[in-house]
Amino acid sequence: MLLIPCPYCGERAENEFSYGGEAHKPRPEVPEEISDATWADYVFLQKNTKGTYYERWIHSHGCRRWFNLVRDTLTHEIHGAYRMGEAPPKVDEKTYV
Amino acid sequence: MKARYSIFSLARNALSSHENWPQAWRSPEPKKEYDVVIVGGGGHGLVTAYYLAKEHGITNVAVIEKGWLGGGNTGRNTTIVRSNYMWDESAALYEHSLKLWENMTKELNFNVMFSQRGVLNLAHTLNEVRITKRRIHANRLNGIDSEWVEPEQVKEWVPIIDLRGNGRYPVLGGSLQRRGGTARHDAVAWGYARAADALGVDIIQQCAVEGFDIEDGRVTGVRTSKGAIKAKKVGVVVAGHAGVLANMAGFKLPINSRPLQALVSEPVKPCVHCVVMAGAVHAYISQSDKGELVIGAGTDAYNSYAQWGSNPVTEDTLAAICELYPLFRRMRMMRQWGGVVDTCPDASPIISTTPVKGLYFNCGWGTGGFKATPGSGHIFADTVANDRPHPIAEPFSLERFKTGFLIDEHAAAGVAH
Protein backbone atom coordinates (compact mmCIF):
# COMPACT_ATOMS: atom_id res chain seq x y z
CA MET A 1 0.00 0.00 0.00
CA LEU A 2 1.48 3.32 -1.05
CA LEU A 3 1.17 6.31 1.23
CA ILE A 4 0.83 9.17 -1.23
CA PRO A 5 1.58 12.75 -0.13
CA CYS A 6 -1.19 14.76 -1.84
CA PRO A 7 0.15 18.34 -2.06
CA TYR A 8 -3.25 19.61 -0.90
CA CYS A 9 -4.31 17.05 1.74
CA GLY A 10 -1.14 15.37 3.00
CA GLU A 11 -0.40 11.65 3.18
CA ARG A 12 -3.26 9.34 2.27
CA ALA A 13 -3.64 5.66 1.32
CA GLU A 14 -3.23 4.74 -2.36
CA ASN A 15 -6.83 3.62 -2.83
CA GLU A 16 -8.04 7.19 -2.39
CA PHE A 17 -6.22 8.04 -5.64
CA SER A 18 -6.46 7.29 -9.34
CA TYR A 19 -3.54 7.03 -11.72
CA GLY A 20 -2.95 9.28 -14.72
CA GLY A 21 0.21 7.79 -16.22
CA GLU A 22 3.35 9.50 -17.49
CA ALA A 23 3.65 13.21 -16.60
CA HIS A 24 5.19 16.10 -18.54
CA LYS A 25 3.84 14.85 -21.87
CA PRO A 26 2.38 17.96 -23.48
CA ARG A 27 -0.51 17.54 -25.92
CA PRO A 28 0.55 18.65 -29.43
CA GLU A 29 -0.55 22.24 -29.97
CA VAL A 30 -1.97 21.77 -33.47
CA PRO A 31 -3.02 18.11 -33.78
CA GLU A 32 -4.30 18.44 -37.38
CA GLU A 33 -0.85 19.47 -38.59
CA ILE A 34 1.20 16.63 -37.12
CA SER A 35 1.92 13.18 -38.58
CA ASP A 36 0.19 9.99 -37.49
CA ALA A 37 3.48 8.85 -35.97
CA THR A 38 3.77 11.95 -33.78
CA TRP A 39 0.16 11.59 -32.72
CA ALA A 40 0.67 7.88 -31.93
CA ASP A 41 3.68 8.88 -29.86
CA TYR A 42 1.60 11.31 -27.82
CA VAL A 43 -1.42 9.01 -27.40
CA PHE A 44 0.18 5.59 -26.95
CA LEU A 45 3.94 5.46 -26.45
CA GLN A 46 5.22 5.39 -22.89
CA LYS A 47 8.58 5.86 -21.23
CA ASN A 48 7.44 3.20 -18.78
CA THR A 49 10.70 3.66 -16.87
CA LYS A 50 12.01 1.03 -14.49
CA GLY A 51 13.29 3.46 -11.89
CA THR A 52 12.53 7.10 -11.18
CA TYR A 53 9.23 7.97 -12.84
CA TYR A 54 7.33 11.25 -13.07
CA GLU A 55 3.63 10.50 -13.10
CA ARG A 56 0.21 12.09 -12.74
CA TRP A 57 -2.23 11.22 -9.99
CA ILE A 58 -5.65 12.52 -8.97
CA HIS A 59 -6.97 12.45 -5.41
CA SER A 60 -10.34 11.03 -6.57
CA HIS A 61 -11.74 10.29 -3.13
CA GLY A 62 -10.34 13.42 -1.52
CA CYS A 63 -9.78 16.91 -2.91
CA ARG A 64 -10.28 15.61 -6.50
CA ARG A 65 -7.30 17.59 -7.75
CA TRP A 66 -4.56 16.46 -10.14
CA PHE A 67 -0.92 16.62 -9.15
CA ASN A 68 2.42 15.04 -10.10
CA LEU A 69 4.41 12.48 -8.16
CA VAL A 70 8.03 11.29 -8.43
CA ARG A 71 8.21 7.62 -7.58
CA ASP A 72 10.60 4.72 -8.06
CA THR A 73 8.72 2.04 -10.00
CA LEU A 74 10.90 -0.78 -8.67
CA THR A 75 11.26 0.09 -4.98
CA HIS A 76 8.05 2.18 -4.71
CA GLU A 77 10.01 4.87 -2.88
CA ILE A 78 8.20 8.22 -3.21
CA HIS A 79 10.54 11.18 -3.76
CA GLY A 80 7.90 13.88 -3.57
CA ALA A 81 4.69 15.36 -4.93
CA TYR A 82 4.21 18.72 -6.60
CA ARG A 83 1.32 20.72 -7.99
CA MET A 84 0.53 20.93 -11.69
CA GLY A 85 2.61 23.68 -13.28
CA GLU A 86 5.29 23.53 -10.60
CA ALA A 87 8.83 22.36 -11.31
CA PRO A 88 9.60 18.82 -10.13
CA PRO A 89 11.83 18.44 -7.06
CA LYS A 90 15.53 17.71 -7.62
CA VAL A 91 15.88 13.93 -7.48
CA ASP A 92 18.85 11.60 -7.85
CA GLU A 93 17.35 9.72 -10.82
CA LYS A 94 17.85 5.98 -11.10
CA THR A 95 17.10 3.36 -13.73
CA TYR A 96 17.49 -0.40 -13.46
CA VAL A 97 18.11 -3.14 -16.03
CA MET B 1 18.01 -37.53 -29.83
CA LYS B 2 17.39 -37.72 -26.13
CA ALA B 3 16.14 -40.81 -24.38
CA ARG B 4 12.36 -40.75 -24.54
CA TYR B 5 10.29 -40.66 -21.39
CA SER B 6 8.02 -43.68 -21.21
CA ILE B 7 6.65 -46.28 -18.84
CA PHE B 8 9.72 -48.39 -19.64
CA SER B 9 12.27 -45.65 -18.88
CA LEU B 10 10.34 -44.94 -15.67
CA ALA B 11 10.55 -48.60 -14.65
CA ARG B 12 14.22 -48.82 -15.62
CA ASN B 13 15.13 -45.76 -13.61
CA ALA B 14 13.08 -46.92 -10.66
CA LEU B 15 15.45 -49.89 -10.39
CA SER B 16 18.37 -47.49 -9.88
CA SER B 17 16.46 -45.32 -7.38
CA HIS B 18 15.96 -42.58 -9.99
CA GLU B 19 19.59 -41.51 -9.65
CA ASN B 20 20.53 -41.92 -13.31
CA TRP B 21 18.02 -39.75 -15.16
CA PRO B 22 19.89 -37.77 -17.83
CA GLN B 23 19.86 -33.97 -17.71
CA ALA B 24 16.85 -32.62 -19.57
CA TRP B 25 18.93 -29.88 -21.20
CA ARG B 26 22.55 -28.71 -21.25
CA SER B 27 23.76 -25.47 -19.67
CA PRO B 28 26.51 -24.37 -22.08
CA GLU B 29 28.59 -21.23 -22.00
CA PRO B 30 27.50 -18.85 -24.75
CA LYS B 31 29.27 -19.13 -28.11
CA LYS B 32 30.73 -16.02 -29.76
CA GLU B 33 28.06 -15.92 -32.42
CA TYR B 34 24.60 -17.24 -33.21
CA ASP B 35 22.23 -16.98 -36.17
CA VAL B 36 19.43 -16.02 -33.80
CA VAL B 37 19.49 -14.96 -30.16
CA ILE B 38 16.19 -15.14 -28.32
CA VAL B 39 16.08 -12.90 -25.25
CA GLY B 40 13.84 -14.36 -22.57
CA GLY B 41 13.67 -17.97 -21.41
CA GLY B 42 10.01 -18.13 -20.59
CA GLY B 43 7.42 -20.18 -22.40
CA HIS B 44 7.09 -17.91 -25.44
CA GLY B 45 10.87 -17.59 -25.92
CA LEU B 46 11.52 -21.33 -25.61
CA VAL B 47 8.70 -22.16 -28.03
CA THR B 48 10.17 -19.66 -30.49
CA ALA B 49 13.58 -21.35 -30.31
CA TYR B 50 11.96 -24.77 -30.64
CA TYR B 51 10.12 -23.87 -33.83
CA LEU B 52 13.11 -22.00 -35.30
CA ALA B 53 15.01 -25.27 -35.06
CA LYS B 54 12.18 -27.62 -35.91
CA GLU B 55 10.37 -25.87 -38.76
CA HIS B 56 12.89 -23.40 -40.13
CA GLY B 57 16.10 -25.39 -39.81
CA ILE B 58 17.82 -22.66 -37.80
CA THR B 59 19.58 -24.56 -35.05
CA ASN B 60 22.41 -22.13 -34.26
CA VAL B 61 20.17 -20.45 -31.71
CA ALA B 62 20.65 -19.27 -28.13
CA VAL B 63 17.95 -18.53 -25.60
CA ILE B 64 19.35 -16.19 -22.97
CA GLU B 65 17.55 -15.72 -19.70
CA LYS B 66 18.23 -13.24 -16.91
CA GLY B 67 17.03 -15.52 -14.13
CA TRP B 68 15.99 -19.13 -14.48
CA LEU B 69 13.75 -20.90 -17.01
CA GLY B 70 10.11 -20.05 -16.55
CA GLY B 71 10.88 -17.91 -13.49
CA GLY B 72 9.05 -14.89 -14.84
CA ASN B 73 5.41 -14.81 -15.80
CA THR B 74 5.48 -18.39 -17.10
CA GLY B 75 5.77 -19.51 -13.48
CA ARG B 76 3.59 -16.77 -12.00
CA ASN B 77 0.30 -17.01 -13.86
CA THR B 78 -2.91 -18.87 -13.06
CA THR B 79 -2.41 -21.32 -16.00
CA ILE B 80 -5.75 -20.72 -17.70
CA VAL B 81 -5.95 -21.75 -21.35
CA ARG B 82 -8.86 -20.69 -23.61
CA SER B 83 -9.40 -19.11 -27.00
CA ASN B 84 -12.78 -17.35 -26.75
CA TYR B 85 -11.60 -13.92 -27.90
CA MET B 86 -13.86 -11.54 -29.78
CA TRP B 87 -12.23 -10.29 -32.97
CA ASP B 88 -11.21 -12.39 -35.97
CA GLU B 89 -7.53 -11.46 -35.56
CA SER B 90 -7.42 -12.61 -31.93
CA ALA B 91 -9.58 -15.66 -32.58
CA ALA B 92 -7.05 -16.80 -35.20
CA LEU B 93 -4.17 -16.26 -32.80
CA TYR B 94 -5.59 -17.88 -29.67
CA GLU B 95 -7.31 -20.75 -31.47
CA HIS B 96 -4.07 -21.54 -33.31
CA SER B 97 -2.52 -21.75 -29.89
CA LEU B 98 -5.26 -23.87 -28.33
CA LYS B 99 -4.90 -26.42 -31.14
CA LEU B 100 -1.16 -26.68 -30.37
CA TRP B 101 -1.95 -27.14 -26.65
CA GLU B 102 -4.11 -30.13 -27.50
CA ASN B 103 -1.14 -32.03 -28.91
CA MET B 104 1.66 -30.54 -26.79
CA THR B 105 2.27 -33.39 -24.35
CA LYS B 106 2.58 -35.90 -27.20
CA GLU B 107 4.73 -33.65 -29.37
CA LEU B 108 7.18 -32.83 -26.56
CA ASN B 109 7.16 -36.27 -24.93
CA PHE B 110 6.70 -34.32 -21.73
CA ASN B 111 3.51 -34.32 -19.68
CA VAL B 112 2.31 -30.71 -19.48
CA MET B 113 -0.83 -31.88 -17.66
CA PHE B 114 -3.12 -30.04 -20.05
CA SER B 115 -6.58 -30.54 -18.63
CA GLN B 116 -9.55 -29.44 -20.76
CA ARG B 117 -11.85 -29.10 -17.80
CA GLY B 118 -13.83 -26.18 -19.23
CA VAL B 119 -13.64 -22.44 -18.64
CA LEU B 120 -16.69 -20.57 -17.41
CA ASN B 121 -16.85 -16.78 -17.77
CA LEU B 122 -19.61 -15.46 -15.52
CA ALA B 123 -21.79 -12.47 -16.40
CA HIS B 124 -22.95 -10.35 -13.47
CA THR B 125 -24.61 -7.36 -15.12
CA LEU B 126 -26.95 -6.86 -18.09
CA ASN B 127 -24.16 -5.21 -20.07
CA GLU B 128 -21.92 -8.15 -19.39
CA VAL B 129 -24.67 -10.54 -20.54
CA ARG B 130 -24.92 -8.64 -23.83
CA ILE B 131 -21.18 -8.48 -24.54
CA THR B 132 -20.77 -12.12 -23.50
CA LYS B 133 -23.50 -13.28 -25.88
CA ARG B 134 -22.07 -11.16 -28.65
CA ARG B 135 -18.68 -12.73 -28.06
CA ILE B 136 -20.15 -16.24 -28.08
CA HIS B 137 -21.67 -15.55 -31.52
CA ALA B 138 -18.37 -14.13 -32.76
CA ASN B 139 -16.51 -17.20 -31.42
CA ARG B 140 -18.87 -19.63 -33.14
CA LEU B 141 -18.54 -17.80 -36.46
CA ASN B 142 -14.80 -18.38 -36.10
CA GLY B 143 -15.27 -22.07 -35.35
CA ILE B 144 -14.39 -21.73 -31.66
CA ASP B 145 -16.51 -23.73 -29.22
CA SER B 146 -18.41 -21.35 -27.00
CA GLU B 147 -21.85 -21.60 -25.48
CA TRP B 148 -24.19 -19.59 -23.27
CA VAL B 149 -25.09 -21.16 -19.94
CA GLU B 150 -28.04 -20.11 -17.76
CA PRO B 151 -27.57 -19.58 -14.00
CA GLU B 152 -28.97 -23.02 -13.14
CA GLN B 153 -26.42 -24.62 -15.51
CA VAL B 154 -23.68 -22.59 -13.82
CA LYS B 155 -24.86 -24.09 -10.54
CA GLU B 156 -24.57 -27.57 -12.04
CA TRP B 157 -20.98 -26.89 -13.11
CA VAL B 158 -20.04 -25.20 -9.84
CA PRO B 159 -22.35 -26.48 -7.10
CA ILE B 160 -20.69 -24.43 -4.36
CA ILE B 161 -21.36 -21.08 -6.03
CA ASP B 162 -23.82 -18.61 -4.50
CA LEU B 163 -25.74 -17.32 -7.52
CA ARG B 164 -27.03 -14.32 -5.57
CA GLY B 165 -23.57 -12.75 -5.47
CA ASN B 166 -24.59 -10.84 -2.34
CA GLY B 167 -27.40 -9.18 -4.32
CA ARG B 168 -25.11 -6.62 -5.90
CA TYR B 169 -23.54 -8.94 -8.49
CA PRO B 170 -25.90 -11.88 -9.07
CA VAL B 171 -24.81 -14.55 -11.56
CA LEU B 172 -26.96 -13.91 -14.65
CA GLY B 173 -25.33 -16.64 -16.73
CA GLY B 174 -22.05 -17.01 -18.50
CA SER B 175 -20.09 -18.35 -21.42
CA LEU B 176 -18.55 -21.80 -21.39
CA GLN B 177 -15.64 -23.01 -23.47
CA ARG B 178 -15.44 -26.75 -22.88
CA ARG B 179 -12.09 -27.10 -24.65
CA GLY B 180 -10.54 -24.55 -22.30
CA GLY B 181 -8.77 -25.56 -19.12
CA THR B 182 -5.45 -25.46 -17.32
CA ALA B 183 -1.92 -26.77 -17.76
CA ARG B 184 1.17 -27.19 -15.62
CA HIS B 185 3.11 -23.99 -16.26
CA ASP B 186 6.60 -25.19 -15.24
CA ALA B 187 6.21 -28.30 -17.38
CA VAL B 188 5.53 -26.11 -20.41
CA ALA B 189 8.84 -24.28 -19.94
CA TRP B 190 10.76 -27.48 -19.16
CA GLY B 191 9.15 -29.47 -21.96
CA TYR B 192 10.00 -26.90 -24.62
CA ALA B 193 13.48 -26.36 -23.15
CA ARG B 194 14.20 -30.08 -23.40
CA ALA B 195 12.80 -30.33 -26.92
CA ALA B 196 14.68 -27.21 -28.13
CA ASP B 197 17.92 -28.41 -26.53
CA ALA B 198 17.57 -31.76 -28.30
CA LEU B 199 17.45 -29.85 -31.61
CA GLY B 200 20.70 -28.05 -30.76
CA VAL B 201 19.48 -24.82 -29.16
CA ASP B 202 21.76 -23.42 -26.43
CA ILE B 203 19.84 -22.42 -23.31
CA ILE B 204 21.82 -19.96 -21.23
CA GLN B 205 20.46 -18.97 -17.84
CA GLN B 206 21.68 -16.31 -15.41
CA CYS B 207 22.60 -14.12 -18.37
CA ALA B 208 21.03 -10.66 -18.41
CA VAL B 209 20.98 -8.47 -21.51
CA GLU B 210 22.63 -5.12 -20.87
CA GLY B 211 22.36 -3.60 -24.34
CA PHE B 212 22.18 -4.14 -28.07
CA ASP B 213 24.90 -3.61 -30.68
CA ILE B 214 23.33 -1.72 -33.53
CA GLU B 215 25.20 -0.68 -36.69
CA ASP B 216 23.54 1.32 -39.48
CA GLY B 217 20.11 0.57 -38.10
CA ARG B 218 20.72 -3.18 -37.98
CA VAL B 219 21.23 -5.27 -34.88
CA THR B 220 24.55 -7.13 -34.80
CA GLY B 221 24.52 -8.60 -31.32
CA VAL B 222 23.63 -8.32 -27.67
CA ARG B 223 25.75 -7.28 -24.74
CA THR B 224 25.14 -9.52 -21.76
CA SER B 225 26.41 -10.14 -18.26
CA LYS B 226 28.35 -13.08 -19.80
CA GLY B 227 29.95 -10.92 -22.48
CA ALA B 228 29.06 -9.80 -25.97
CA ILE B 229 27.28 -12.27 -28.25
CA LYS B 230 27.06 -11.64 -31.97
CA ALA B 231 23.77 -12.40 -33.66
CA LYS B 232 22.33 -12.00 -37.14
CA LYS B 233 18.85 -11.66 -35.66
CA VAL B 234 17.53 -11.02 -32.17
CA GLY B 235 14.04 -11.88 -30.97
CA VAL B 236 12.97 -10.23 -27.72
CA VAL B 237 10.34 -12.09 -25.70
CA VAL B 238 10.55 -10.62 -22.22
CA ALA B 239 7.25 -10.27 -20.42
CA GLY B 240 7.42 -7.42 -17.95
CA HIS B 241 10.56 -5.84 -19.37
CA ALA B 242 9.78 -5.19 -23.03
CA GLY B 243 9.80 -1.43 -22.39
CA VAL B 244 13.22 -1.61 -20.73
CA LEU B 245 14.70 -3.53 -23.69
CA ALA B 246 13.02 -1.25 -26.25
CA ASN B 247 14.65 1.71 -24.47
CA MET B 248 18.05 -0.02 -24.85
CA ALA B 249 17.37 -0.37 -28.57
CA GLY B 250 16.35 3.28 -28.82
CA PHE B 251 12.59 3.24 -29.29
CA LYS B 252 9.45 3.39 -27.16
CA LEU B 253 6.56 0.94 -26.90
CA PRO B 254 2.87 1.55 -26.16
CA ILE B 255 3.23 -0.44 -22.96
CA ASN B 256 2.65 0.15 -19.29
CA SER B 257 4.14 -2.44 -16.93
CA ARG B 258 2.02 -3.40 -13.95
CA PRO B 259 2.07 -6.19 -11.39
CA LEU B 260 -0.67 -8.80 -11.73
CA GLN B 261 -1.15 -10.92 -8.68
CA ALA B 262 -2.34 -14.38 -7.81
CA LEU B 263 -2.89 -16.42 -4.66
CA VAL B 264 -2.89 -20.06 -3.70
CA SER B 265 -4.85 -21.50 -0.78
CA GLU B 266 -4.19 -24.47 1.44
CA PRO B 267 -5.07 -27.74 -0.36
CA VAL B 268 -8.61 -29.09 0.04
CA LYS B 269 -10.67 -31.90 -1.48
CA PRO B 270 -11.93 -31.41 -5.05
CA CYS B 271 -14.68 -28.79 -5.10
CA VAL B 272 -14.09 -26.60 -8.17
CA HIS B 273 -14.09 -28.78 -11.26
CA CYS B 274 -13.60 -26.20 -13.99
CA VAL B 275 -12.07 -22.73 -14.28
CA VAL B 276 -14.48 -19.99 -13.18
CA MET B 277 -13.75 -16.41 -14.17
CA ALA B 278 -15.81 -13.48 -12.90
CA GLY B 279 -14.63 -10.33 -14.65
CA ALA B 280 -17.07 -7.84 -13.12
CA VAL B 281 -15.96 -8.57 -9.57
CA HIS B 282 -12.51 -9.68 -10.59
CA ALA B 283 -12.25 -13.13 -9.08
CA TYR B 284 -10.83 -16.08 -11.01
CA ILE B 285 -10.63 -19.49 -9.47
CA SER B 286 -9.61 -23.00 -10.35
CA GLN B 287 -8.30 -25.92 -8.35
CA SER B 288 -4.89 -27.44 -8.89
CA ASP B 289 -4.39 -31.18 -8.98
CA LYS B 290 -2.84 -30.87 -5.52
CA GLY B 291 -6.13 -29.40 -4.27
CA GLU B 292 -5.04 -25.81 -3.82
CA LEU B 293 -7.37 -23.09 -5.00
CA VAL B 294 -5.57 -20.98 -7.57
CA ILE B 295 -6.98 -17.46 -7.47
CA GLY B 296 -6.30 -14.73 -9.99
CA ALA B 297 -6.57 -11.11 -8.90
CA GLY B 298 -6.28 -7.84 -10.80
CA THR B 299 -3.45 -5.59 -11.88
CA ASP B 300 -2.23 -2.72 -9.75
CA ALA B 301 -3.55 0.68 -10.76
CA TYR B 302 -0.09 2.14 -11.40
CA ASN B 303 3.14 1.27 -13.22
CA SER B 304 5.48 -0.92 -11.24
CA TYR B 305 8.27 -3.43 -11.73
CA ALA B 306 7.97 -4.83 -8.21
CA GLN B 307 6.99 -8.48 -8.41
CA TRP B 308 4.33 -8.26 -5.75
CA GLY B 309 0.82 -6.88 -5.82
CA SER B 310 -0.80 -4.07 -3.91
CA ASN B 311 -2.84 -5.04 -0.83
CA PRO B 312 -6.12 -3.33 -1.83
CA VAL B 313 -6.19 -5.48 -4.99
CA THR B 314 -5.73 -8.68 -2.96
CA GLU B 315 -8.50 -7.59 -0.62
CA ASP B 316 -10.96 -6.80 -3.46
CA THR B 317 -10.47 -10.18 -5.08
CA LEU B 318 -10.74 -12.17 -1.86
CA ALA B 319 -13.91 -10.23 -0.93
CA ALA B 320 -15.44 -11.23 -4.26
CA ILE B 321 -14.35 -14.86 -3.79
CA CYS B 322 -16.00 -14.92 -0.36
CA GLU B 323 -19.29 -13.54 -1.75
CA LEU B 324 -19.41 -15.96 -4.69
CA TYR B 325 -18.22 -18.97 -2.69
CA PRO B 326 -19.30 -18.45 0.97
CA LEU B 327 -17.78 -21.87 1.70
CA PHE B 328 -14.31 -20.36 1.30
CA ARG B 329 -14.68 -17.64 3.93
CA ARG B 330 -12.46 -19.48 6.38
CA MET B 331 -10.03 -20.77 3.76
CA ARG B 332 -6.43 -19.75 4.43
CA MET B 333 -4.21 -18.45 1.67
CA MET B 334 -0.73 -19.99 1.62
CA ARG B 335 1.02 -17.85 -0.94
CA GLN B 336 0.53 -14.57 -2.77
CA TRP B 337 2.77 -13.23 -5.51
CA GLY B 338 2.88 -10.87 -8.46
CA GLY B 339 4.24 -10.92 -11.96
CA VAL B 340 4.99 -7.81 -13.97
CA VAL B 341 2.78 -7.75 -17.06
CA ASP B 342 3.23 -5.50 -20.08
CA THR B 343 -0.18 -4.05 -20.83
CA CYS B 344 -1.09 -2.61 -24.24
CA PRO B 345 -3.79 0.03 -24.79
CA ASP B 346 -6.01 -2.46 -26.67
CA ALA B 347 -5.31 -5.49 -24.46
CA SER B 348 -3.76 -7.29 -27.44
CA PRO B 349 -0.12 -8.31 -27.87
CA ILE B 350 2.60 -6.93 -30.15
CA ILE B 351 4.29 -9.46 -32.45
CA SER B 352 6.30 -7.30 -34.73
CA THR B 353 9.33 -6.16 -36.63
CA THR B 354 10.79 -2.98 -35.11
CA PRO B 355 12.51 0.22 -36.28
CA VAL B 356 15.80 -1.72 -35.90
CA LYS B 357 16.49 -4.24 -38.69
CA GLY B 358 16.92 -7.82 -37.52
CA LEU B 359 15.36 -7.02 -34.15
CA TYR B 360 11.90 -8.45 -33.44
CA PHE B 361 9.63 -8.03 -30.46
CA ASN B 362 6.99 -10.39 -29.13
CA CYS B 363 5.52 -8.62 -26.11
CA GLY B 364 2.59 -6.79 -24.59
CA TRP B 365 0.65 -9.93 -23.71
CA GLY B 366 -0.73 -8.13 -20.70
CA THR B 367 -2.59 -10.38 -18.33
CA GLY B 368 -3.18 -13.30 -20.70
CA GLY B 369 0.00 -14.57 -22.29
CA PHE B 370 0.17 -18.09 -20.90
CA LYS B 371 -2.70 -19.44 -23.00
CA ALA B 372 -0.98 -18.18 -26.14
CA THR B 373 2.42 -19.73 -25.38
CA PRO B 374 2.67 -22.32 -28.20
CA GLY B 375 0.93 -20.28 -30.90
CA SER B 376 2.80 -17.12 -30.05
CA GLY B 377 6.19 -18.83 -30.30
CA HIS B 378 5.17 -20.64 -33.48
CA ILE B 379 4.23 -17.51 -35.43
CA PHE B 380 7.07 -15.47 -33.91
CA ALA B 381 9.62 -18.07 -35.08
CA ASP B 382 8.15 -17.77 -38.56
CA THR B 383 8.32 -13.97 -38.34
CA VAL B 384 11.98 -14.03 -37.26
CA ALA B 385 13.01 -16.70 -39.77
CA ASN B 386 11.42 -14.98 -42.77
CA ASP B 387 11.92 -11.35 -41.71
CA ARG B 388 8.26 -10.52 -42.25
CA PRO B 389 5.18 -10.93 -40.05
CA HIS B 390 3.47 -14.31 -40.14
CA PRO B 391 -0.09 -13.79 -41.52
CA ILE B 392 -1.57 -14.32 -38.03
CA ALA B 393 0.96 -11.89 -36.54
CA GLU B 394 0.43 -9.18 -39.15
CA PRO B 395 -2.49 -7.37 -37.44
CA PHE B 396 -0.51 -7.35 -34.17
CA SER B 397 2.32 -5.18 -35.49
CA LEU B 398 3.57 -1.97 -33.91
CA GLU B 399 2.14 -0.15 -36.95
CA ARG B 400 -1.39 -0.51 -35.64
CA PHE B 401 -0.82 2.28 -33.14
CA LYS B 402 -0.16 4.65 -36.04
CA THR B 403 -2.92 3.42 -38.35
CA GLY B 404 -5.47 3.13 -35.54
CA PHE B 405 -6.36 -0.49 -36.34
CA LEU B 406 -6.46 -1.47 -32.68
CA ILE B 407 -7.71 -4.90 -31.67
CA ASP B 408 -9.73 -4.11 -28.58
CA GLU B 409 -9.98 -7.23 -26.44
CA HIS B 410 -10.58 -5.64 -23.06
CA ALA B 411 -13.80 -7.59 -22.54
CA ALA B 412 -12.35 -10.94 -23.58
CA ALA B 413 -9.11 -10.34 -21.68
CA GLY B 414 -11.18 -10.07 -18.53
CA VAL B 415 -8.54 -8.43 -16.37
CA ALA B 416 -8.73 -4.63 -16.46
CA HIS B 417 -5.66 -3.24 -18.24
From TrEMBL, chain A:
GO molecular function list: sarcosine oxidase activity
Domain of life of the native organism: Bacteria
Pfam families, sorted: SoxD
Report the InterPro entries cross-referenced here: SoxD (IPR006279), SoxD_sf (IPR038561)
> What processes in GO biological process is this protein linked to?
tetrahydrofolate metabolic process
Question: What is this protein called in UniProt?
Answer: Sarcosine oxidase subunit delta family protein
Q: Which organism is it from?
A: Ferruginivarius sediminum
From TrEMBL, chain B:
Q: Which PROSITE patterns match?
A: RHODANESE_3
What cofactor is needed?
FMN; FAD
Q: Which Pfam families match?
A: DAO
Please provide the Gene Ontology terms (biological process) for this protein.
tetrahydrofolate metabolic process
Reactions catalysed: sarcosine + (6S)-5,6,7,8-tetrahydrofolate + O2 = (6R)-5,10-methylene-5,6,7,8-tetrahydrofolate + glycine + H2O2; sarcosine + O2 + H2O = formaldehyde + glycine + H2O2
One example of the protein's molecular function in GO is: sarcosine oxidase activity
The keyword Kinase appears for this protein = no
Q: Which residues form the Rhodanese domain?
A: 36-80
Q: What is its main location?
A: cytoplasm
Which GO CC terms are listed, alphabetically? cytoplasm
Subcellular localization: Cytoplasm
Task: Give the matching Gene3D superfamilies.
Answer: D-Amino Acid Oxidase, subunit A, domain 2, FAD/NAD(P)-binding domain
What EC number(s) does this enzyme carry? 1.5.3.24
This protein's UniProt keywords: Cytoplasm, FAD, Flavoprotein, FMN, Nucleotide-binding, Oxidoreductase
Which enzyme type, at the first EC level? Answer: oxidoreductase
Q: Please, which domain of life does this record's source organism belong to?
A: Bacteria
Q: Which family is it part of?
A: Belongs to the SoxB family.
NCBIfam families in alphabetical order: soxB
The protein here is known as Sarcosine oxidase subunit beta
